[in-house]
């Protein structure tokens, strides 16, 4: 059976984020439903479904990209959870951020580590 881009993307999104991805899409439905559709179809249906990189590699790239951009704390939180969901350890997540210090500087890395600390604590408590 051939899946639509949306179905394919939703399947991949749930591999990464479990129900959290669907919650993000649902939250957009009343204000920007097309945005949720674009995220699912393009980011997860087209990009995340490509061959040659596994989900751990994709999440490591995503974490370093979001951290480098700065000001992406909400998305960083989502993808730290996603990284944990696909088997990246908390230690490795912190190491990804430390690797970026020479290229992005301490402030962005410190912000990312702060987000990671909150995510780790929430997951431990939950």
TrEMBL record:
One of its GO terms (molecular function) is peroxiredoxin activity. InterPro entries: 4CMD/NDH-1_regulator, AhpD-like, CMD-like. Residues 33-117 form the Carboxymuconolactone decarboxylase-like domain. It holds the Pfam family CMD. Gene3D superfamilies: AhpD-like. PANTHER family: 4-CARBOXYMUCONOLACTONE DECARBOXYLASE FAMILY PROTEIN (PTHR33570), GAMMA-CARBOXYMUCONOLACTONE DECARBOXYLASE (PTHR33570:SF10). This is Carboxymuconolactone decarboxylase-like domain-containing protein. The lineage of its organism: Bacteria, Bacillati, Bacillota, Negativicutes, Veillonellales.
